[in-house]
Each structure stands twice: as structure tokens, then as C-alpha cells.
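Give me C-alpha cells for this 139-residue protein.
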Amino acid sequence: MKKLLVVIVLLGGLFVTSGCQGNTSTSSENTQNAQSVESTERSVDQKQLIATIVITNKGEEVTSKEVAFQENESLLKVMKENFTIEEKDGFITSIDGMSQDQKNNVFWVYTVNNEMSDKGAQNLLLKKDDTITFNLQAF
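Here you go.
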């Protein structure tokens, strides 16, 4: 009887341990899936272009951020994806809580590669390595 009890305990232990090994296989599969997702994200990132967005207030830099974008994406779309903005008719009126003030003639203006833009953000298509500088300034 004692031998039978020992055999039952050993078989029970064997079943418990083999159950743990099944989890290891699942963990390995999860690791492989995660690596596959990372690889896919890297290949998508390689297709993305990079621009730099600089935010200034009265000429003083507040933030600077490199942003990824796809070919033919508008500045407005990229800004919405990377900053908290408000806009009206394709023109940005507030960035990260800093707003224009029409009564005091304070407005957002921006340059593209140090040249003043005459387009609204919705009409400007970003190009690789563009530097966009937004400045909240009084006129």
C-alpha cells in the first residue's frame, strides 16, 4: 500500500511538472510574437520621415521635438498627433495650452527651414528633415 501511495505521488508530481513545461512553450511563443511585432514596427519606422518641430514663445524656446511622418502628410495632421492643439480653418490657434490672443494681437506664426510660410498648417506638406518653428508673438 505504501508503494502504491509513493507511485501515485510521483505520478501526480510528474503531471504538475509537465503542466509547467507547457507554459514555458507559450512564453517562448509570446517572446517570438513580440519580436515579430518589433521587427514590423521597425520596418514601418524606416518608411517614416523625420522633421523637427520647435515651439517658441516670444522668441524663447519652449520645446523642440523630432516627429515622424509619412510622405504627403500635412503639418496640421502631424501637429495633432504630437501636440495638444486647437485650430480654426486650418490655422493653429493654440499649442500645448499656449493660445493666440486676438485682442492683444498675439498670434502663432511659423517658419519652415527659417523661411516664413504663407500657407495654413493644413496646406503645408512636410518634407524630410524640415525644421518647423512656431512662435507665439505680438504684432
